[in-house]
Amino acid sequence: MTLSSIASVLETGFDSTDIEITGMNALKDATSTEVSFVANSKYIKDIQSTKAAAVIVSASLVEYVPQGCVPLIVENSYWSMAILSKYFAPVIENDELPKAEIGEGTKVSAKAEIANGAKIGKNCTILAHVYIGAEAVVGDNTVIYPNVTIYRDCIVGSDCIIHSNSAIGADGFGFATNNRGEHKKIYQNGNVVIEDDVEIGSNVSVDRAVFGSTLIKKGVRIDNLVQIGHNCEIGEYSVFVAQSGSAGSTKLGRNVVVGGQSAFAGHLEIAPFSTFAARSGVTKNITESGLTFAGFPLMDHKLWLKLQVKIARLLK
């Protein structure tokens, strides 16, 4: 889209040089041919350093837009970003793409469906009712069990196992809300990247990113019934036990162990080698490595055990 046509869609003024815009991205990652947005004053530093061609911004923050970056001034920047995201959403399937590439030694069930543009590595096993979307990539020696869906553009590494009914790359739970309480879908135009030697259990959802990638790093183990939100990053060799999950944009370091039914709020940073007992509720950053936590509100595991003993005595 041209920048002038974007301004027209957003119903905002435009009096700058018109250029071609190739996509949308976060403030930190946007390039000189991309549009970004800001919906919160805590990102002022990111506005000032962005390389974006234009930024969707409210009038209260327009003074922070750097020279050379076009401000697209709107009443509700988050709502306007949601409107624009639809225009940059890729088509779900594209018949003009070349036929899928299947590597030597790979076995694909006659009941599986591989979309145009997909690439499957060597010696893989793709079982019945698997769907692999357009331009998705699967590495070598990977096993994908029945009814798994891998959405378009997603990447699965080598030596991975994905069990039945899991969905890789479904849209993250993203929407904007206006002052009338109406919701507008934010199209999730990123992808999911799963590195090598990852095993994912059944009925797991790993959501695609709004921009960029949701990242599952090498050696991760994910049990059944786990939810990984959009733009999360799960560190190497981390473990998620059944019915646990993370809200969007939370980043876990290496070798984090997450007990069953534990949950992370969004936009957190979790130190490497942290351990969370079952049903932990994590709502703040964990900055020190090697600690074990429990409970909600979250506390040191030993303190939580002592607290349970005291409560039990009070009830006698």
TrEMBL record:
Q: Which reaction does this enzyme catalyse, per its entry? A: a UDP-3-O-[(3R)-3-hydroxyacyl]-alpha-D-glucosamine + a (3R)-hydroxyacyl-[ACP] = a UDP-2-N,3-O-bis[(3R)-3-hydroxyacyl]-alpha-D-glucosamine + holo-[ACP] + H(+)
User: Which pathway, per its entry?
Assistant: Bacterial outer membrane biogenesis; LPS lipid A biosynthesis
Enzyme class name: transferase
GO-annotated cellular components: membrane
The UniProt entry, under InterPro entries, shows: Hexapep (IPR001451), LpxD (IPR007691), Trimer_LpxA-like_sf (IPR011004), UDP_GlcNAc_AcTrfase_non-rep (IPR020573)
Q: Which residues form the UDP-3-O-[3-hydroxymyristoyl] glucosamine N-acyltransferase non-repeat region domain?
A: 18-86
Please name the catalytic residues of this protein: H230 (proton acceptor)
Function description: Catalyzes the N-acylation of UDP-3-O-acylglucosamine using 3-hydroxyacyl-ACP as the acyl donor. Is involved in the biosynthesis of lipid A, a phosphorylated glycolipid that anchors the lipopolysaccharide to the outer membrane of the cell.
Protein name stated in the entry = UDP-3-O-acylglucosamine N-acyltransferase
Species, as recorded: Sulfurimonas gotlandica (strain DSM 19862 / JCM 16533 / GD1)
Its gene? lpxD
